[in-house]
Amino acid sequence: MKEDFDLSALPLPFDVIPESTSSLKDCAFHQIRQLLEKQGEYTKIEEDCLDDGFILCDLTVVVRKYRAWQSMFPRVQPCFALKCNPDPMVAAVSAQNGAGFDCASIAELQLAKNSSQRCMSGMIVYANPQRAERDLDLALEMFEHPVPMTFDGPEELHKIYSAYQKQLEINPRAEAPQMILRLLVPDEHSTVPLGEKFGAADTTIESLTQT
């Protein structure tokens, strides 16, 4: 018989799910009751959920897959891409087990920050091929120590440097973010060739590391 997942042992976002919720069934009932009690006063997102149905996520699967990763790659900490599933429960369980986060937006950075603060888990990376200047400013302000940021070319590197210079004007002791150069990986046989959007070509690596 499949063992139910005890949520009470996890540092979950109780602003979303109450502390009294301790099983997957309780979690599902809570979410359904929350919608029914509104009696028609729904937001656009809630209306879409009611029209389109909803998904029950078995959090034991999240834990099991993370432990499988740890078993096969014990020296590599995965950074879960929140863009694929920005759910606070999934984020909380991932952080509680030690995962880091790959974030593409300010909203995702905030979710990762909230989830990681509950258990002081791993790295948060701000990964986006082209960020708005205001988003860079906010990202540098959000954390006591700036999160690492990816870059694929000189333009984004200069934007991040400019944002950091503005931070120095406010706080002369502000730390510079760690920079991660994202490399172009050959993927000509992929269904979705991400090389068209992400990664620096090998011919540009030397100049970018010396920029």
Give a quick rundown of the structure.
The protein is mostly helical. It contains eight helices and five strands. The chain has a three-stranded parallel sheet with strand order 1-2-3, with helices on one face. A two-stranded parallel sheet has the order 4-5.
Number-wise, the strands total: 5
* Overall pLDDT metric: 82
> How many H/I helical runs?
8
- The fraction of residues in strands falls at 5-15%
Helix content: 40-55%
N-to-C span: 58 Å
Give unreliable regions as ranges: 1-5
Helix and strand content put the structural class at mainly alpha
Largest sheet: 3 strands, parallel
Order of helices and strands: HHHEHEHEHEHEH
Alpha carbon gyration radius:
20 Å
Strand arrangement, largest sheet? 1-2-3
What is the overall shape? globular
